[in-house]
Amino acid sequence: MRQVKQENSTYFLMCERKWIFHLLMVVAGFFGSYTFLLRGNVFCNAQTGNVVLMGMALGAAKWNEALYYLIPISAYLMGAFVSELLPNPIKRHLRIRWDTLLIGVEMLFVLGLGFVPESAPVQISQIAINFIASMQYNTFRVAEGIPMATTFATNHIRQIGVGLAKEVQHSHSHDKSHRRKLAQHFEMLLFFLVGAVVGTILCNLCAGRAIWATFVPLGVIFCALLHADFVEEKNMMGKKPAGH
């Protein structure tokens, strides 16, 4: 497999490859359409909305409703907590990286969610995706040297705006270094959109079992990471992914 390198010839681990992040964004976009269409009209990939809703409930003196929002917020918090503590123990006791194990765990969650009936409380699916989205966001942080978010689009939209501003500022300059970063954020946004479109189509066709479609991108990622752990990068297990 072709080795991906920086301009200074630093090797990028498989879990840092740009195409891995693209597939993760497809999954994130799919999760967004899945939870909004089928699981309570909410987006579970981030927590800004839940914090706002909790504040609104507190402001309206709806105490029980406000307390409920502690559950998804706590699930997201626990995802970050777990994904921060486990990488080193996993590396010491297993022959695979935490990144690889996480994708396997995410696939198990997806498998289980596909069996959740439409009549089940939407909170089951919401909290599960809160948890795995947080772990994914906290684990896959830098794509080929550029900080990236793999579960929501807001930062990519902001970075595209920044990149376009730099395009104007450097219009008469030979410095076009900003274009690589601009292109990567645009690609991430595009793949997120693709995931949301595919998710919408499949959710309308297959209802809750549509989430099993994410097995395709997740399975490709898992196989690539597993191959890297046992073959391509088996002697590089001590090397940490950028951003960790």
Structure description:
The chain is mainly alpha-helical and 244 residues long. The protein has helices at 18-38, 48-59, 63-68, 70-85, 87-93, 98-114, 122-139, 154-169, 178-206, 215-232; strands at 142-143, 146-147. Strands 1-2 form a two-stranded antiparallel ribbon. A hairpin with a 2-residue loop joins strand 1 and strand 2 (146-147). Helix 4 (70-85) packs parallel to helix 7, helix 6 packs antiparallel against helix 7 (122-139) and helix 6 runs antiparallel to helix 10 (215-232). It is globular, with a radius of gyration of 19 Å.
Report the average pLDDT across residues.
92
Helix content: 55-70%
Structural class call reads: mainly alpha
N-C termini distance? 25 Å
Question: What string gives the helices and strands in order?
Answer: HHHHHHHEEHHH
The main pleated sheet reads as:
2 strands, antiparallel
Beta strands, count: 2
SS summary, helix count: 10
Shape estimate: globular
Query: Which regions are unreliable across 5 or more consecutive residues at pLDDT < 50?
Result: none
Sheet with most strands: strand arrangement: 1-2
- Report the portion of residues in β strands: under 5%
* Radius of gyration, taken over Cα atoms and rounded to an integer in Å: 19 Å
